[in-house]
Specification:
It contains seven helices and no strands. The protein has one domain. The protein has 174 residues and is mainly α. α1 runs antiparallel to α2 (30-42), α3 (48-77) runs antiparallel to α4 and α5 packs across α6. Helices cover 72% and strands 0% of the residues. It has helices at 2-23, 30-42, 48-77, 90-99, 105-129, 139-156, 166-173.
Length: 174
């Protein structure tokens, strides 16, 4: 049953990536489906209390980042600037919040930083090769593609779980 959920989650990630790359938007129904799958999968390796406390920490960290980005653009433009739909899509924001359920706080921060850098650099390279493309970065799609690869590794190499990888966390905290 758990492997079926893993395959289903990887499929939903692929669908989100396809939608965001193709249409620069994602279907709203994919987010609750991802939440349900992540919660069921992660409750196999942690308690509900820890899962939701970590999700709260992750979402608060992301909210602080959004506030700081809003302050930056507000100062830059010398007026209060709404970054939603101008610099960052609502789907991207909601997708990242949903990803807050997927990882422990340390791994969420690692995923977020590496994901933003990877998607940003990847899209810059894409724009160099394809000149007549949209300037909107498919952030949710790029992050979904990275998660698809992570989930494929989990399935193929029988990693068990990716919510919290104690060896990686121990090496970083140490």
């Amino acid at each position: 049953m758990l492997h079926l959920l893993d395959y289903l989650l990887a499929g939903v990630f692929l669908f989100v990536a396809f939608q965001d790359f193709r249409f620069r938007a994602i279907s709203i129904w994919t987010l609750p489906l991802i939440v349900i799958l992540i919660v069921i999968i992660n409750l196999q390796v942690t308690t509900a209390r820890i899962l939701f406390m970590n999700a709260l920490v992750n979402i608060l960290v992301f909210a602080i980042q959004l506030i700081l980005v809003t302050i930056y653009f507000s100062l830059k433009h010398r007026k209060i600037t709404n970054i939603v739909n101008r610099y960052l899509g609502l789907g991207d924001i909601l997708f990242i919040c949903v990803m807050g359920l997927m990882f422990s706080p340390l791994l969420f921060m690692i995923f977020l930083v590496t994901g933003l850098i990877t998607v940003g650099l990847g899209y810059m390279l894409w724009r160099l090769m394809v000149t007549n493309t949209s300037s909107a970065i498919p952030l949710a799609g790029g992050l979904s593609l990275m998660l698809t690869l992570l989930w494929a590794g989990k399935i193929l190499f029988h990693m068990g779980q990716v919510y919290s990888i104690p060896v990686i966390e121990h090496l970083i905290v140490r």
